[in-house]
Amino acid sequence: xxxxxxxxxxxxxxxxxxxxxxxxxxxxxxxxxxxxxxxxxxxxxxxxxxxxxxxxxxxxxxxxxxxxxxxxxxxxxxxxxxxxxxxxxxxxxxxxxxxxxxxxxxxxxxxxxxxxxxxxxxxxxxxxxxxxxxxxxxxxxxxxxxxxxxxxxxxxxxxxxxxxxxxxxxxxxxxxxxxxxxxxxxxxxxxxxxxxxxxxxxxxxxxxxxxxxxxxxxxxxxxxxxxxxxxxxxxxxxxxxxxxxxxxxxxxxxxxxxxxxxxxxxxxxxxxxxxxxxxxxxxxxxxxxxxxxxxxxxxxxxxxxxxxxxxxxxxxxxxxxxxxxxxxxxx
Length: 331
Description:
The protein has helices at residues 11-19, 25-34, 41-70, 77-98, 102-113, 115-126, 132-150, 153-175, 182-205, 208-234, 241-264, 268-293, 298-325. The protein is mostly helical.
């Protein structure tokens, strides 16, 4: 007996059978109904509840900031700090009381988000003279602590964003130069290596939704900061050792995604990021050939559009076929 027959009938596998032509539309509908994989009122309620909580957290954080900003001149300095600080402490305590429930984690995330406004208000009141990168560095550190304690994917996303803002702000304010030139380029490569480390840590120490969000966010952030090095390499503008290092790290990252997330731990999101980067690099190469080498103008624009469309079509077909082959396994 084929071992595939022992697999459970997940929604992904049923759709894969339908995509392969084994099940027609009526049979797919009946199979989804009999296996309880058709969306229900309860599943939609859980989906809306999760997203409503996240939107509510963001709106509460923004509302606190806007309230203080709108009444800035009317509020004494300590009152401004007390309002934001009390909101942060209250959110943290309520989140701890609610525990590991979705509401508890979302409320704890609000507490972490409000630490940034606390630093900003404190700096404005007492004129600490701290640069923006220092504020984001402290904010990111606190968010990491919240993430470790709360284990909520949304906190890791914000912390990762804060890390990259800190890095690029430090380059701008301390080095006073381009992020992709000289020492700044080495810092950008360092950020990408931190992203790679975070992917490895998330794969090792997290699970479920938290692992998926953390690994995908860190990997895509790393590819995003490395992508300009690939564009510089194709445009023949690798002016320094830092540029060459960045290009090599980008190639290594793409090779790692291909080897790990195509074979060892199937992940559709990672492969979609891989395909996006390849599409941009190939399009850049064709643009250089068309506009620099052949000196094409309108024809070059049309030809480049065709090249991009063909790549998108090809990668989309490849990802869909790959997903059908790995139904029930790919993340």
